[in-house]
Each structure stands twice: as structure tokens, then as C-alpha cells.
Amino acid sequence: MADNGKTISELASGIKSGEITARAVVESSVAAAEKLNETLNAFLEIDRDGATKRAATIDSTSPLAGIPIAIKDNICVQGMQTSCGSRILGDYHPPYNATVIDRLLSAGAVVIGKTNCDEFAMGSSNENSAFGAVKNPWDTSRVPGGSSGGSAAAVAAGIVPVALGSDTGGSVRQPASLCGVVGLKPTYGRNSRYGLVAFASSLDQVGIFARTTEDVARVLEIIAGRDLHDATTADVPVPDYASQLSGDIKGARLGFPKALFGEGLDAEVRASVEAAVNVYRDLGAEIVEVELPHAQYSIAVYYIIATAEASSNLARFDGVRYGFRAEDAPELRQMYRKTREEGFGPEVKRRIMLGTYVLSAGYYDAYYRKAQQVRSLLKQDFQKAFERCDAIITPTSPTPAFLLGEKVDDPLAMYLNDVYTVTANLAGIPGLSVPCGLSAGRLPIGFQLLGGYWSEPTLFKLAHAYETAQPFTERPPVHAD
After folding, report:
1. Mean of pLDDT values over 92-106
2. pLDDT tens-digit readout, 287-318
3. Which residues are catalytic?
4. DSSP H helical segments within 314-409, as ranges?
5. Where are the domains of the chain?
6. Which of 7, 90, 207, 268 could cross-link 324 (Cys pair, CB 3.0–4.6 Å)?
7. Which of 21, 14, 2 lies closest to 154 in space, CA to CA?
8. CATH architecture label of 8-251
9. What's this model's pTM, rounded to 2 decimal places?
């Protein structure tokens, strides 16, 4: 096993004491990535030489000294590919690091590779990658979730203890649920988006995968905070998240939105999440019913706003400055058309066309403006709910992992996988997915905790208390050893 199931603090302690070396930990992780990639297709690039060289020079006193980490391939790492799972970026290697990468490297982390993802982070199954689908380590005939499926699979399979992804409508939390790991989407503005290739700028956030809440908390402490390169980051102090974890949550108020446990929810998922609610009740939390009356419109609102912003953001990929350029296009407009036709996959094209339509003259007010108005109402719903509770519990995904190919030809069915996760992105609030069991077919199920702005400490404390009471120790059949 690449990391023997150890946490960040355990690995860092072993490296600091000399019990193990950073080089040995990193080499083991790289070897596992290379071995399992034939089965999982989780990595698009594995940097054996760069990772082992960096591991040999690590200062063992750094907080993440020698910790191997995997990075979703839409986050820039200097000198490594950033394809966003798309052919249109070609063999693009950015000349700079994303801010979150600089902060990880300063803390002693070692990037071992870039992980596969849905093209431009658009998807719920990781089947939209131009470089093939990622397989779920629990059952390789099933999806890992998307769009950050490669990062989720790498953590679930024990290749790395932690990985970064991006979450625009659930792209960290949903694959975390389907792969049986912890996944965080922080408050909008908590993490810098500098160096994250934009999909929908008002929704995107860099998120974190790990096998424990404590590990997620430790990484967030390092990457969070104000960044002068990103005007949307907030000048809000970054607490010592990990030190605030404890098992005592007596008196905490947990909101239960009964309306979200109805139609469309798999029976096993409902039972597992309701069992988690009972665990919280036994731990001393007060369960209070809350209403989110506009949540029923969240999918429609999300797929108007997200596609509109994607249409604008992806206009820059035209074959002129970098990446793929179509051949045999003697005229400029023809080159634009041919490059985008050949370079983008079908789902990206679908979303660009949807976004261009809702922004077009005559339709802007009916669609985009109306969606923004409902988005404001959804934010108000959460504000009212959080007057009655400290956090809200929901399912993360309506079903366990589905079969590869099962929904790929039905966009609406695919979009509905995000029904519980898009609300957090629309409102800008944090969301945390926590494993809470296995289905009868031994597929992971997760629940989601949602909190008010900057409430990550509350979510971490609640999740840690659940983990302490109900530790999730199961490992998938495809696992590093």
C-alpha cells in the first residue's frame, strides 16, 4: 500500500522522526500510481523524476513534509501538463503555479501527478474526458463521479492521502461520495482560483479530497486565504482548523430538509443518510426540520448560470495563442470554427451552445436574469435556515455509483446527479461530503453537510464527531498494496 492508510499527521510524524523517509513515501506513491493507472486511468501525467527529486530535498519540519499529493488537471502546476481533460489545450504546460500549488509546495508537499477529469470540469461521471473514463476502484465497471473523478479515485485507492479537485456544482463532493472518501467545497472566496482554469467563475472553487476530515482540515489551513492574484478571495482570517476538532457536539443543531429526502432518492442512500442523522441525535445534536423552498429549481438555475459563464470563459480557446489549432483552415473564421469543432468534446459544445443561447438578445431576461433572481432567493433560503441550525444534512448523491455508459447519452439524467450539490455553489456556502456506509452491492454512500459562510470549522467538527462514532474503514478491491 502506497501510504498504508496513514493520515497526513502520521506520515509527517514518521518522516520527521526518521522512521521513514520522504523519498520512500513518494516513491511508493508514484509506483502505486503507475501500477494502478492501467486499471483506473486516474492519472494523465505521473511525474516520477520530478517527485523523487523534490522528495530528496524536503525539510522534514514542514507541515506537509514529503506528503504525496495528486492535482486535478485543470489546476496549473509549472512544467506539468494542464489539459483540462480536453484535446483543445493540446500539450499545454503552464509557466507558473496556481496559488494553491505554491502554498502546498511551500508546506513541503510533493506533487506526483495530474489527475484525469471531465473535459473542462463539465460532467458528473468522468466519462467526458478526451483521454478516456476513470474507473471507480470499488467496481471498475462503474463511474467514480465527476468531474474530479481521477483525484477521488487516487485517494480512495490509497495512491495518495490527499488530492485537489475543483467544485463548480458538486465536482468534489459527488465523486467523494461515490468513491468513499471525504470531499470539501469551501466557501466561495476561501481558496484562490488563480491558476484554476475557469469553467464558471462565480461558482468554481478549489476543493480537497482525503480519507479523513482531519486531513482535509490540515490541507485547507495551508491553501486558504487572501490572494492578491484573485480579487474574489476574501480577507477573512484562516483558523487552525485541525486544532478545533473534537468529538463533543452536544447542543449542535442539525437541519433536516425533509423535502430533499423524497422523490428520486435511492432507497439505500436514504436509509444510510437517515441512519447518520440518528447517529448525530445519539451524539447529542438537536435535529430540526428546515425548509429550502427554492432548492427544487436549483438544477435549472445552475445549468443556466454555469453554461452562460462557460460560454464566455471558453471563448478564449480559439487556436490562436496556445493549444490545439486545426489544420487546413486558410481563413481566420474557418480556423476558429474548425479548431473548436475538432478540439472540444460533445458535452463542452452542448454547454457552450446552451450558454450562448441564454445570453443572446431576446432570451437574456427570460433565462439568465431570471436564474440570477432565483439564485438570490436560494441564498435567502439558506440564510433563514441557518438562523435555526448550525448546519444542514442532505444526501450527497441521489444514487451510489452507476455503470459506465448508463447515463452518458441522457444529459438530463446525468445533470440530475448534481441535484443535492449545486445549491452550495449557487449560494457560495461550504459543503462537505462524508462516507456513511456501503450499499448492498458494496458501493460507497455519503452524506453532505452544508453550513453558512466561513463555517468550515463547524462542518469539520460535525464530520469528525461522526467519523469518531462511525469510522469508515472499508477499502475498495482496487487498492495500492
Report:
1. 97
2. 999 999 999 999 999 999 999 999 999 999 99
3. 72, 147, 171
4. 332-343, 346-359, 370-385
5. 8-251
6. 90
7. 2
8. Alpha-Beta Complex (3.90)
9. 0.96
